[in-house]
Structures are given as C-alpha cells and as structure tokens.
Specification:
By secondary structure, this protein is mostly beta strands. Helix content is 0%, strand content 49%.
C-alpha cells in the first residue's frame, strides 16, 4: 500500500484532515480553520487560524500548540524560510513570526496600515507584503526593509513570483504590475479591465 498522505481543507465548518488512501477523517475541529486559509510546512504540520484569534499547529494526531495573536488575527499566513517559522499579519497591520516548535510570537514590522491578503516569502527568506495603502514591501525576517514600491492603490491579491524572480502584484484599480528581481530596473504595468482573468498576454 502507498501512503498518499492527508488532504486538508478549511470551510465554515472548520478544519478537516482526510487520509487520501482510505478516505478516513483523521482530524476535525469546528473552531479551527474558519478564517483565512491553512498552510502546510515541510514537516507536514498544518497551521490555521482559529475562531478565537489564535493560530493552531496541528497534525493528524491532534493539536501541537496554539497561540493568541496580539491585537487580533488577520486572515493570511505563509510558511517562512526552511519551515522554521510561520509569518502572519494581524488585524492592525503588524507582521509577526511564530516559532514552529512552540508558537512563540515575535514582532517583525508594523506597516501602520491594514493588509488584506498580500503576503509572500521566497526561497531566500525575503518577505513581500502589499498593504491597503498601495505600498509593496520587501523585507528580511528581522524587520529590515529592503525596498518598497508604490502601486498607487490597495494591493488586493496575493503576490506571486515566477521562476525568474519576477513578482506580480494586482491592485484595487485593476492594474497588474510585474516587478523584476531588481525592481527599480524592471517595472511594467498593465491596465486590466477583467478583474478575474487576463487573456491574450504576450511575453
């Protein structure tokens, strides 16, 4: 028999883990996973927001730890470099990292504005954040700001990076930006009339 692992999903009914090979529910909790989306690290530990402004670390065996987010949880998180920590931005726009072994919270940076959804990290551990005032940030996990980019309006979607290091961000004004690895030297923008898809683009 092959071990196909577990499928994890979140909904208004909470977080559920299902063993793929047997279609058996291995974890279920109605108070976890009702907000935002869960993430999974390299050790197959699942991290999800709870309904009580907490972040939970869980496996099929149960809850490993949970910790309260200062000033209320946001709705987005990512796994940090080498799965050493989880990154999340609270409801006030403050970036925190959480130790994966015990959930210890450490403040990284205060953006002094809210962040709806735009949070990403790359293989080098650089953190990228797009705030609701339209600033896109690149910073290290010690809070050192590497650079910023003014997108002109709220960054409403999760940024993505292609294999060449180009970062794509999307704003509330329906503009899609492509930021090169050295962003000052390579920035293009495209007006997008369709707010859900972009068709017919050529490189």
């Amino acid at each position: 028999d092959y071990n196909l692992g577990n499928l994890w999903h979140t909904s208004t009914s909470g977080l559920r883990g299902v063993e793929i090979g047997t279609n058996t529910i291995v974890f279920q909790d109605a108070n976890i996973g009702t907000k935002g989306r869960a993430v999974v690290d390299a050790n197959n530990i699942v991290y999800a927001f709870g309904s009580d402004d907490q972040i939970y670390a869980v496996t099929a065996a149960g809850i490993l730890w949970n910790t309260t987010v200062t000033d209320g949880s946001g709705s987005t998180m990512v796994v940090g470099k080498d799965s050493e920590y989880i990154l999340s931005i609270n409801s006030e726009g403050v970036l925190y990292k959480y130790d994966v072994t015990n959930g210890k919270e450490t403040k990284v940076y205060d953006f002094e504005t809210t962040v709806s959804n735009a949070l990403m990290t790359d293989a080098n551990g650089v953190i990228y954040v797009g705030d609701d005032d339209g600033t896109f940030w690149a910073l290290n996990d010690d809070g050192t700001v590497l650079w910023t980019f003014d997108a002109g309006s709220a960054i409403t979607a999760r940024p993505v990076m292609d294999k060449n290091g180009v970062i794509y961000i999307y704003t509330a004004d329906n503009v899609l930006y492509a930021l090169g690895f050295n962003k000052e030297n390579s920035t293009i923008s495209l007006e997008v009339n369709d707010t859900t898809t972009v068709e017919g683009l050529k490189s």
